[in-house]
Amino acid sequence: MRDEPAGSTHPVSRTSMTIAAFSTVVEWYDFTLYLYLATILSRVFYGGGTASLVVTLGGFAVSYLMRPLGAIVFGQLGDRHGRRRMMLASMALMTVAMLGIALLPTRDAIGPAAGWLLLALRCVMAFSVGGEYTGVVAYLYEGARPERRGLVTSSASAASEVGGLLAVGISATTVSLLPTAALEAWGWRIPFFLGAVLAAMVGIARSTLQESPEFERQRASGSVPANPLRHAVTHHRAAIARGFAISALGSITYYVGIVYVPTFLTTTGAMAEGAALWMSTAAAVMVIAVTPAVGLLSDHVGRKPVLLVACVGAAVLPMTMFAWMAGAGAAALAGALVLAALGGTVSAVGAVATAEQLPGEGRLSGLALGATMATAIFGGLTPLVSHLLLEYTARPTTPGAMIAVVAVAVFPVLWTLRKPAHDPRATG
Q: Can you tell me the distance from the alpha carbon of 102 to that of 172, in angstroms, rounded to the nearest whole number?
């Protein structure tokens, strides 16, 4: 007989688990598309030039600050009324925001108001994504067998990177096939329209999801917290802090080491826009390959050893890899692939490790305060900070140094990780 998670009232069907895991393809396609097209959007909405690119990256950072707020709001919904209802609501909002961006008038049509409208819709997108990823991670963790939680939960990270791969691949194809005039006039809208269609399709598929067995247990036992946010703050401060540290490392290795790379390559003059996007496509493939293997490894050897090794790698490798990428040819590709493998490793084990820190009661709210807050700071702000520091120092190793500093700061927290007391079957 299958060993179910503690307190489950029924197994989660394979169909529901598959829909939940792979729906993050759309989430990350929609969200990362903006950054992959940053140089083009800076011309279309902000007039072009170095200052416009800074404004565009700043818009990414500002909108990212909405992620913790969205995570808190949707986390309350998921902890009080169920994971399924929360995931339906977040995807519906994401669909509306993506379609709105695809239909936006440009700066040539309405002036500076176009940039403000883009920022507003990015804030709506970030708000919806804030609850989206933590909801999916919690759902997969709660529905998986204890001995396969690392592999199953890491599928959310792998599927997210498939979304990132689609985003960068479609962006690269669009940029490569269209002349600049057509790209800036209407071509940039194509990837956003595709995202809106995909989000609507996922929303329809999610309507068939079963509820999480963990939430069913809480509902049956009457242990659903009346105020999940207060419950998490009162009872699980240490777990929230550990989730923050794990997510800080995962966020900076991903957003600086992977997503920021196309902007880095074009800013340093190492590559043109199209070539830089194809380089990022190769990096996305690397992450997809690494993620499930690392998730499975963490099921066998534990989360802590994998996180510690990845943290050491994040401390010693990134500066050299960014120096390689500032060059050309095989060295640049090798640098991008090593950083992608590193970011994929931390994301894979970080997904299950953060969920494991918290019990089912108030889990989504606790993730909102810990993991999502760290992502807002070390994910949303770091591409902009990397760009500004790179401009100021003119040193290509600067983004790598940022990653190393965070890794060194996080290492002591990871060293103290223990198996969570609320789940003795968790892999420490």
A: 17
